[in-house]
Specification:
Bound molecules: adenosine-5'-triphosphate, magnesium ion
Number of domains: 1
Structural class: alpha/beta
Strand order of the largest sheet: 3-4-2-5-1-6-7-8
Mean pLDDT: 90
Number of helices: 11
CATH superfamily: P-loop containing nucleotide triphosphate hydrolases
CATH architecture: 3-Layer(aba) Sandwich
Helix content: 40-55%
Largest sheet: 8 strands, mixed
Number of strands: 8
CATH topology: Rossmann fold
Shape: globular
């Protein structure tokens, strides 16, 4: 599985929008996807067409002592998703927090029981504030994807000495950053984007998600932008981002395979060297 923990540098940068539309774009490339909402706000499900009144989710299942996987759904476009769930009196938040304390490997255990193909992409919509959900997501993630807007506050946050450490993976190679809501006609956004590109060249995705009203309209129709407006700028951005990510993972997997083969070969017992004598006779 390719597990991606997606989180915003600050509130409202478009994290949930990225999770839902990236899920649709990866799925459109015939790769299975499971999107999991780790935010108690429980809004990811709305991007997949779930009715507002349906409060089911993994936390509400746990609160009612029911199996978590009965809160798994498939959207109209084939994306599997697991909503957080909600209730009137926050009983489900207390229940899931207690469950997590008692099952420290819950997320890993849940994913390992799923009957899904090995090439499944698991996208985790992480909450803004430090929480056990963050730690658990980063514990199992192959990639941490930080969503950033091209504006001054994001830029200063990225450079602040007290930048939010809970968002980062240990391995820098798998720490990626995605610029969202970029409007190239605004001078300041162009300037900040080029600063971010210079300062974070190693981690910044070469694809930027543009500011695009089609995205908000698609959400109003409970659809992904790829389905609602396939010719739009952001639909193309998401397709490219999905292609870039899947190609990157395939390349890394191939590299790992080659390294393993090399290691196996180096471990094989060396046979005794034979000397072949070639004598040429006239
Ligand atoms: N590239 C974009 N262009 C236009 N609107 C966008 C873009 N990205 C996100 N939005 C809009 O911004 C709003 C906030 O997005 P979203 O809910 O995804 O943010 P969030 O980071 O998940 O927020 P929170 O921190 O509350 O979880 C939504 O109305 C969404 O449609
Ligand atoms: Mg969100």
């Amino acid at each position: 599985m390719n597990i991606v923990a997606i989180h915003g540098l600050k509130g409202g940068v478009g994290t949930t929008t990225i999770v839902s539309n990236l899920a649709a774009a990866i799925n459109a490339q015939s790769q299975p996807v499971l999107a999991i909402d780790l935010c108690s706000q429980n809004s990811l499900r709305l991007h997949f067409g779930m009715a507002l009144q349906n409060e089911n989710g993994f936390a509400s299942q746990i609160a009612h002592h029911r199996p978590w996987h009965e809160a798994g759904y498939q959207s109209y476009n084939g994306v599997n998703f697991l909503p957080f769930g909600q209730d009137q009196d926050n009983k489900c938040i207390n229940a899931i927090e207690l469950y997590i304390r008692n099952h420290p490997n819950w997320l890993n255990d849940w994913l390992s029981t799923l009957d899904m193909p090995e090439n499944t992409w698991v996208l985790l919509d992480c909450p803004l504030h430090p929480s056990p959900f963050h730690q658990d997501a980063l514990k199992i993630a192959d990639i941490s994807l930080l969503v950033v807007n091209p504006e001054m506050l994001s830029y200063t946050c990225l450079h602040a000495p007290n930048r939010p450490r809970h968002l980062y993976l240990n391995s820098e190679q798998n720490q990626l950053m995605l610029l969202n809501r970029y409007c190239p006609s605004i001078d300041l956004e162009r300037d900040i984007t080029s600063l971010i590109k210079t300062d974070f060249a190693a981690s910044l995705l070469p694809i930027t998600i543009h500011r695009d009203e089609h995205l908000r309209e698609a959400f109003a129709f409970k659809k992904s932008v790829i389905d609602a407006a396939p010719a739009s700028q952001s639909a193309q951005d998401f397709s490219l981002a999905a292609f870039w990510l899947t190609a990157r993972q395939a390349k890394l997997a191939q590299k790992r395979e080659e390294e393993e083969t090399e290691l196996q070969l180096s471990k094989q017992p060396q046979g005794k060297a034979k000397i072949t004598q070639i004598t040429s006779r006239p």
